Structure formats: C-alpha cells, structure tokens
C-alpha cells in the first residue's frame, strides 16, 4: 500500500473503531414503481425499434441486436435457447456445463448463431481453460461472461484483468455487483459490460441465507449511472417476473436485461419435464441449488454465495411466444412514454413510487 502497510494492516485500518452504518435512503425494487406515461406523437407500437447498437468500451467491438439476454443457467442458457433467441437477434449466455465436444456439434450446425452467444465461466482454471479453447476454436463468438457469486473479491478483479489481456477484442461481461464503485472497478479492470444483481433471482436464496442484497431497481439505477460515466454498459440480471419489469430495467438505464425464470418452462429450456394430474411442468433450479450441484458433481458448489431453489414451472411450449409477448410489452411501454426507439426509453422514463401496482381482485 501507499503508506508502506501490508494488505492486512490496510484492511485493519479501514475497519478500526468503525460502527455499523445505516443508509436510510429508500432503495426500490421493480414492484415498488411504475413508469409515468408521457405525451407522445407515436401512433403505434409497431413503430418502435427494439434493436440497439453498442460499441463497447474496452474491446471496441460494435454489436447490434435486441438487448435481452438468456441467463447462463443450465435450465435457460441452452444451445436450443440460443437458436430460438438468436434468430430474433437476442443474446444467450450459454451455461458453462457443456463440453468442448458439445460446442463443436453446436457450432457445426448453427454457425449463424455464434455471434449472439456468450461463453460463460467462473474463475476456476477448468472454466477459464474451456472458455479460452471455445473462443479460439470459434472466432465468431464475441462475448465471454465471467460470472461469480461475489463480484467484490480482489481475486475476481484479477481474473477480469487476465481475461481482458488474453482476449483483447472480445466483449467481456463480468459480475455480479450492485454498487457504482465496484461497477467502475470492474470496467477499469477490463470488463465491457457489468452484470448487476445480488439476490433478486426467482430461484435465489442468497438474501435469506446471507442477509446480503440490494433492491434491483436501485441497483440498476446506480450501476448504470456509474458504468455510463465510463462509457461502459450494464446488464440488469434477475428479478423480472413480467414484461413490465423488463421495461422498468431498461427504463432504469440497463443496456441489457437478463432473464432466467421468464424463459424457463419452454421447449428450449433445460430441466426435466414433469407430469402431474395431466398437467405438464418443467423443472427449474438455481445454479447453486442442490439439484444443480448433484447434476454437476463437485463443480458448482461455490457458484453463488448460497443455495438456490428448485421449483417446477408450468410448461409453456415454444419460447418464441414468450419472446413475442415480452417484446410486445416493451414496445408498448415505449409508446406510452413517446420513445420511438428502445434507446430513448430511459431518457423518457420517470418512475413513480407506488404502494400497489396491480389490481389483484380476480386472483
Ligand atoms: P430470474 O430472472 O430467474 O429472476 O434471475 C436469474 C438470475 O438469478 C441468474 O441470471 C443468476 O444471476 C441468478 N441465479 C441463478 N441461479 C442462482 C442460484 O442458485 N443462487 C443465486 N443466488 N442466484 C442465482
């Protein structure tokens, strides 16, 4: 350190004689707000353009597409999902449990989808080794997603630096964090896109297990502001339960919104199909749930700060129907605030704090 202290001594100084702090500024979730409509000249939602073009800060790579991303969970970030979403210009973060052989098979059949997928990895040598091999073998892949339980560790920052050095022109996604200062640190370490969200996920139990987290709307507002100040980008990851939440994520400044649960339960999703009383369900689970751990023996125990849940969601057929519904919802949000392009949505968004957002009288 600057004062000739060891790391341990510096940490000691930081914490000596300190009291716990309390931030009394309210922090909000998607459910706590609505978007206020605004006067507009738009005639129809069909006029709204949901594609965006970004040039990323560190890789200097330019990408055009619809910035909705399938999560790198083995029930969601499948090759089948990538084919369905990629054909509509959406992105899929492929989960990290496919083998190199699986990637070869996929790439040989669907080379056109490669530009819209990310290869995912934690910080283990096994993960990074496989990701590197995949990136070298298939240069059409532009994104690499470095995903750890706790994006706040120095070890993770070092990993981001190493990946940036090894892959100077790939788009590096890194997370997860929920505060501006760590967003900045990861961008300065070489990440292009910061993944935001600790604990909002539908099958996540981190908040229950650890007491750690941050309401997602406020996290996105803070991190997006920090990232944009450095020409970086953010993904709002987790906590969306309906198309309106996806729109709120974009309204709060997210460049991309990542979905797990909303994309579960489809033909293209992973997980077992279950039949109960003549009704079909699909299994969905967190990447650190015991289901995931049993499946990927030994490999994923530290993926997230705590366990995730296993649930069953009603089977919903092809994901294209759900995607249409989500995109239709966001287009409609844009028309309500007079944004002719998704790019303008956050500039035209005023959130209002509400105590009730939905009338529940009929269920
Ligand atoms: P959802 O869209 O389902 O609300 O959230 C998806 C996100 O939840 C994922 O992208 C990932 O960040 C997070 N997630 C997935 N599995 C787990 C888990 O087992 N534990 C925790 N804490 N988070 C998880």
UniProtKB/TrEMBL annotation:
Residues that, per the record, bind GMP: 237-239, 260-261, 286-288, 304-308
Residues that bind NADP(+), according to the entry?
Answer: 44-45, 96, 147-149, 198-199, 287, 303-304, 332-335
Q: Where is the IMP dehydrogenase/GMP reductase domain?
A: 28-357
Residues bound to K(+): 199, 201, 204, 207
Q: Where is the active site?
A: 204, 206
Q: How does it assemble?
A: Homotetramer.
Q: Sum up the protein's function in the record's words.
A: Catalyzes the irreversible NADPH-dependent deamination of GMP to IMP. It functions in the conversion of nucleobase, nucleoside and nucleotide derivatives of G to A nucleotides, and in maintaining the intracellular balance of A and G nucleotides.
Family according to the record: Belongs to the IMPDH/GMPR family. GuaC type 1 subfamily.
Per its record, how is this protein called by name? GMP reductase
* Full protein segment contained here: 775 to 1137 of 1156
């Amino acid at each position: 350190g600057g004062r000739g202290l060891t790391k341990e001594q510096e940490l000691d100084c930081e914490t000596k004689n300190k009291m716990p702090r309390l931030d009394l500024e309210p922090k909000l979730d998607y459910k706590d707000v609505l978007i206020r409509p605004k006067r507009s000249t738009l005639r129809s939602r069909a006029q709204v353009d949901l594609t965006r073009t970004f040039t990323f800060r560190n890789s200097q790579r330019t990408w055009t597409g619809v910035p909705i991303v399938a999560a790198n969970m083995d029930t969601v970030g499948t090759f089948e999902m990538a084919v369905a979403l990629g054909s509509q210009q959406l992105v899929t973060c492929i989960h990290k449990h496919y083998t190199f052989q699986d990637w070869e098979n996929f790439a040989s059949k669907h080379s056109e989808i490669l530009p819209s997928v990310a290869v995912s990895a934690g910080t283990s040598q096994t993960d990074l080794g496989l990701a590197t091999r995949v990136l070298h073998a298939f240069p059409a892949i532009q994104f690499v997603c470095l995903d750890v339980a706790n994006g706040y560790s120095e070890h993770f920052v070092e990993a981001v630096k190493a990946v940036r050095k090894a892959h100077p022109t790939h788009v590096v996604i890194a997370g997860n964090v929920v505060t501006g200062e760590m967003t900045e640190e990861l961008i300065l370490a070489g990440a292009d896109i910061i993944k935001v969200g600790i604990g909002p996920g539908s099958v996540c139990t981190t908040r229950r297990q650890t007491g750690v987290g941050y309401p997602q709307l406020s996290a996105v507002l803070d991190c997006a502001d920090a990232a944009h100040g450095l020409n970086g980008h953010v993904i709002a990851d987790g906590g969306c339960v309906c198309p309106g939440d996806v729109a709120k994520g974009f309204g709060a400044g997210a460049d991309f919104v990542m979905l797990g649960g909303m994309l579960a339960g489809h033909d293209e999703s992973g997980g077992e199909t279950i039949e109960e009383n003549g009704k079909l369900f699909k299994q969905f689970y967190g990447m650190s749930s015991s289901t995931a751990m049993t499946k990927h023996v030994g490999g994923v125990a530290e993926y997230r700060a705590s366990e995730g849940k296993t649930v069953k969601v009603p089977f919903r057929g092809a994901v294209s129907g759900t995607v249409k519904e989500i995109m239709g919802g966001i287009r409609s949000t844009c028309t309500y605030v007079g944004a002719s392009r998704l790019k303008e949505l956050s500039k035209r968004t005023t959130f209002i704090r509400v105590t009730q957002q939905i009338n529940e009288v009929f269920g």
